[in-house]
Specification:
Blueprint: H1 3-13, E1 42-47, H2 53-67, E2 72-77, H3 82-94, E3 99-102, H4 111-119, E4 123-127, E5 139-143, H5 145-160, E6 169-173, H6 181-200, E7 203-204, H7 227-241, E8 250-252, H8 256-268, E9 279-280, H9 287-294, E10 301-303, H10 306-322, E11 343-346, E12 349-351, H11 356-361
Parallel strand pairs: 1-2, 1-3, 3-4, 4-5, 5-11, 6-7, 6-8, 8-9
Antiparallel strand pairs: 10-12
Helix pairs in contact: 1-6, 2-10, 3-4, 5-6, 7-8
């Protein structure tokens, strides 16, 4: 099955209809049909939480870029509370925002608020998380989220020699927050690689928490991407299903926050790096996790250089303000149930202990000391 077919399957799991490719609004989209009216650079940025390092970096980084161009910027964090995010966006609309950049906590509930924005000709850019069920989202900027999971699955495949017939290995899979649209893509990308090995018996899931298909991913989702909840879940699996000499060989963790909780659980259970520590995946290149890689407690992270995402959104804002065409590179994949949202997709990168210097430090994403070097 192709990646786009998989994406359609994921969207159907949310009850969304797959549709024909559509162009964005004429004059402000990637359809190339002229120019629209200019907007003032008054931007409301809505980020989901301060509890994850990446959202702090994303929000502050984008705010800095836009303010350097003399934009008026209101940056808000919603503490993982949907009601709070709705209220903050409503206040940004009332405060005169001409453009909204929204990383949704729950992509299913913002429709009515954004319809109000649309009625006032406010342009809406969905930031890294698709906003569903409304035509009031104009653009989407994100990384290839299916590929994020695919890279995690392929890393496990390579590390364990699965393609060469090695196994069996004990696997414990985790998935992200059920209210995060991206979590479905992450899981599908990884599970399309790993499920055939589960079905062949090369990967065994002693806990039984092995979704039969991509559509069942929420059964192992961790609400809110909370480290503590991932730790509690891993504690339960280890205590219930790993008695005697049975050991976990590999853990599919979709992001770094869950990986930290999983690693704490393994540590408390007596696992030791360099001896019986399992392969563990991650995403986001958070400082604590990069340091964990240096200590052989995490095997990899998928890095999404959010500076590039910020730059792309900055470029979109510039085009909207000037009344020019907004560049996109995908007008087929991201159907939110009402429209296919014109999207700019960026590519993620695998980072391991051996490539931290090259990828993260040399690019000035983080300092050598923060990276544990």
């Amino acid at each position: 099955m192709s990646r786009i077919e998989n994406v359609s399957a994921i969207l159907l799991a949310f009850g969304l209809a797959s549709g024909m490719a559509a162009c964005a609004p004429a004059g402000t989209s990637g359809d190339g049909e002229g120019e629209g009216e200019a907007a003032s650079c008054n931007v409301g940025i809505s980020m989901p939480t301060r509890s994850l390092e990446r959202w702090i970096n994303d929000g502050e980084g984008l705010k800095e870029k836009l303010e350097a161009k003399d934009c008026t910027v209101d940056l808000q964090y919603a503490d993982d509370k949907t009601d709070q995010q709705i209220s903050q966006i409503q206040n940004q609309i009332a405060g005169g925002a001409e453009i909204l950049v929204v990383a949704a906590i729950d992509g299913e509930v913002l429709g009515p608020t954004l319809e109000d924005a649309k009625s006032q000709d406010i342009q809406v850019i969905a930031y890294d998380r698709l906003i569903n069920g409304t035509d009031a989202v104009d653009y989407y900027a994100t990384f290839d989220n299916y590929k994020v999971g695919q890279l995690q699955g392929e890393f496990i495949e390579e590390q364990l020699g699965l393609a060469d017939g090695e196994g069996p290995y004990n696997l414990e899979p985790f998935a992200g927050s059920p209210d995060d649209n991206n979590a479905a893509f992450f899981f599908a990308g990884a599970w399309d690689v790993l499920l055939p090995y589960v079905e062949s018996g090369q990967l065994v899931v002693p806990s039984g928490k092995s979704p039969a298909s991509n559509e069942d991913w929420t059964s192992i989702g961790i609400l809110g991407w909370k480290s503590a909840d991932a730790q509690a879940e891993m504690d339960n699996r280890l205590q219930s299903f790993y008695t005697g000499d049975k050991k976990v060989d590999v853990v599919l963790s979709p992001n770094d926050s869950l990986a930290l909780g999983i690693e704490s659980s393994l540590d408390a259970a007596g696992y030791e790096p360099g001896t019986d520590w399992p392969v563990i995946t991650g995403q986001d290149a958070d400082v604590a996790n990069v340091q964990a890689m240096q200590g052989d407690r995490q095997s990899m992270t998928v890095w999404k250089d959010t500076r590039e995402l910020g730059t792309q959104v900055e470029t979109m804002v510039d085009a909207i303000v000037a009344g020019n065409e907004v560049e996109v590179n995908d007008t087929e994949t991201y159907d939110n149930g009402v429209k296919v949202v014109p999207t700019y997709i960026l590519e993620p990168v695998v980072v391991t202990k051996d490539t931290v210097q090259e990828e993260l430090v040399d690019s000035e994403f983080m300092s050598a000391s923060d990276a544990g070097l």
